[in-house]
Amino acid sequence: MNNEELQPLKKQPRAGKNSRSGTQDDVVYAHIFDVILEQRLAPGTKLSEEALGEIFGVSRTIIRRALSRLAHEGVVLLRPNRGAVVASPSVEEARQIFYARRMVERAITELAVEHATAEQLAELRQMVRDEQDSFSRGDRGAGIRLSGEFHLKLAEAAKNAPLISFQRSLVSQTSLIIAQYESGGRSHCSYDEHNELLDAIEARDAEKAVHLMMHHMDHIDSKLNLDEESASDDLHAVFSHLLQTKKKPGRAAANR
């Protein structure tokens, strides 16, 4: 694959007010974050400001602000005079990220046992059901994203703001590592492990909950193969679902 080239895209309407809220750079940031979480955007992909501006229908200034936020979280690399690329962690960086993730997950789990409310646990269980439904219908990307969002929601239940910030960066960086290095048939049984974890948290059993979380991290780690790559470096293809959504109103109007 050639991560340094990207063909210009045709002009597209303004992106996604129906599916995302906030400022324009919030919208762009959220969509790029999601495709990284879904492991659909390959590590090393060049993030052309021109191409992204045309995809989302916004200025380069908006794109730069979104990319800057992603760079702060460690999932985008800003290269002086060469533009931005999706981060491509080395083997050693991957090991360090996974080590940090394990430490943060341990702390989050202990705090979630202490602080998680019944409402938060119910929301987490619904996320697990949605995750399972996504994999069952073959929507792997949505299932992976929901799996990552489960860990972000769990961090909220821990009620520790710095840990939430750390976890957001670590979850997205972990998704990049998995996209770059995961091997085998890519089987995903995280929803079973997530349900068992929630049972332990609901029972306020910190020791069991931490054990289950570490087992869950072991399971993810065991599937890494440092010799393989996947995902895509074609921005147009990765964001095609947005472009198709935006084209539909135009077709309808033309038929009126």
TrEMBL record:
Keyword terms: DNA-binding, Transcription, Transcription regulation
Signal peptide as annotated in the record: none
SMART domains assigned: FCD, HTH_GNTR
GO MF annotation: an example: DNA-binding transcription factor activity
Region ranges (Disordered): 1-22
Gene3D superfamilies reported in the protein's UniProt record: GntR ligand-binding domain-like (1.20.120.530), Winged helix-like DNA-binding domain superfamily/Winged helix DNA-binding domain (1.10.10.10)
Coiled-coil regions listed: none
Keyword Flavoprotein in record: no
Domain HTH gntR-type: 22-89
Lyase as UniProt keyword: no
Protein name, UniProt field: HTH-type transcriptional repressor NanR
Source lineage: Bacteria, Pseudomonadati, Pseudomonadota, Gammaproteobacteria, Pseudomonadales
